[in-house]
Amino acid sequence: MTKLVEVDLEFDFSDAIHAFQFDSNELHGTSSAKRIDFIAEYDDCYRFIEVKDPDKPGAANPEAFIRKFKSQKLIESLAGKFRDTLFFRHLTSNHENEKRIDYIVLLSCAAIEPAMMMAKQDLLHRKIPIENSVWTKNPVANCVLMNLEQYKKSFGENSVRRISSGDT
Hints:
By secondary structure, the chain is of the alpha/beta class.
C-alpha cells in the first residue's frame, strides 16, 4: 500500500501502479525547477498532484493564501510547477509508455467556493496552456482544481485523510 504525506494530508495511492513524492530534494538536488508534490501512475494516465492546504491546523496566514488565490499569483505558480515538472519528466524518462496526464490541484481551503475554483481553473488552462494548434501532442488531458470533498468524491472516500483529525 503506497501512502504519501503532504504536511497534514495523507494520500492513499494503493490503486496506482507507482506513486512517489516528486518534490523531493533527493530527486532534484539543487535544481531551482518548480515541482508538483506527487506523481502517480495508473493504467491509463499519470496524475500530477499539487496540494495546497491552508486549512491545516496552525496554518500561517491563510488570509494571505486567499489573496494570492484571488490574484493571478497562485495560478501562475501552479502553471509553472506543471511546466517545470513536465520538462523534468520529459528529460528523465524513456517515453516508452506515454500516457495522458491529469493535473490535479487539491486546494484544501473551505473559504474558497467551488464556483471561484472553476473560474481559476479556466485561467490555469490558459496559463499552462493545455493545447496548441501546432503541437502534435497536448501535454495534459485534464486540469482540475478541487477541494477536499471533491477530491474524495472523485478518487474515493479513503483516498486522502487529514492526519491531525485522527481518522484512520
